[in-house]
Give the backbone structure.
Amino acid sequence: MSELTDIKSLEYERLQDFVVNVLGEKSFRVGQIFSWLHQKKAASFDDMTNLSKDLREKLKSQAALTTLAIEDLQTSKIDGTKKYLFRLPDGNFIESVLMTYKAGTSVCVSTQVGCAMGCSFCASTIGGKVRSLTTAEILEQVYAIERDTGERVSHCVLMGIGEPLDNYDNVVSFIRLISDPRGQDMSERNITLSTSGLVPKIYALADEGLAITLALSLHAPDQGKREAIMPVAKTYEIHDCIAACKYYFEKTGRRVSFEYALIADVNDRDEDAAELTELLRGFPCHVNLIPVNPVTETGYKRPPREACVAFQKKLEKNGINVTIRRELGRDIDGSCGQLRRKKLKGTD
C-alpha cells in the first residue's frame, strides 16, 4: 500500500496537482478542499459536506488529515493564558500557548519534538531533538486551538519547542499556508520567527520574500558568554549572527528583535549592558528582555524586578529600543518545554 499524502501540508499549487492529477477531480474542487482545510478547519474528511461521498472516500483512501489531540490544558487564573499539551499522531508530545493581547490573540507554536540546540536555560532541549514537525503539525496547533476556543487567532510566534530554522522547509511552507488569503489569511506582519542563530538559514529566509519578523535569541553580549549559554554559538559566531540579521533587515525592511534572557549574575551586569550597547549600536532593532524562567535542571535564577528595570534603562540611555517582556501565565508551566517535560517524567 502506498503512503498516504499529507494533504494539510500541501501549499495550494501542490494541492491542485494532487486533486487534479492524482485524484482525477475537476479543478474547482481544489478551492473547496483548501477552504475546508484552512478556513473551516475540518477535523475529518466527513466534515467536508459539499464534497460528494465518492470524493470523500477517495480522499480517505489516498490522503491523511493530520489532527492533534489535547492531552492536557492549563489555564492561568491571572490572565487567561492557555497552555496546551498536544499528542501527535505518533504519540509524541508538543506544547503551544494561547495568549490574549489588546491587538488580538496570539499562539506560540512548536516546530520540533524536543530541540537539538542545547540552550542551557531552556527545558525544551533537555533530552535532545526527537524529530521535526510536519507543516500540518505546525498548522494544526493553531487550528486545534481555534476549534477548542471558538476564537480566531490573529498572530503567531514560532518560539515554542524546537529551532524553526532547523526545520526550514516545513516552517516556510507553514508561513505561506497560514498567510494564504484563500485560507487562514494571517498577515505575514503578524508572524514572528525566533531562531538561536543558524546563520546560513537566516540569509536564506531573507531571500524568501516574506514580511515576517525575525527574532534572534541573543542572550549574551559577547562570544564567550554566549557560547556558555548557547552551544550553537560555537558554530555561528556572534558577529556573524548580527551581520545576518542586518542582511535580513536590508532585504525585508523588517526590524529585527533580539531576545535577551536575563539571568542573575550571568548576563545582567553593568558591563553586559555596555557590551550589548556596542554590539547593536547604529542598528535599528528592538531588544526584548526576558527575566529567565527558573528551570529545575539548570539552577538559573531570574534577577529581581528592579535589576531588570535598571538593565533596561542603561540600554535606553544609549539609544537602544528595549522592553521587558510582559509575562503571561505565571501561575502555569510558562517556561517552554516544562509541561511536556512533566508528562515525559510522569509527574503532575
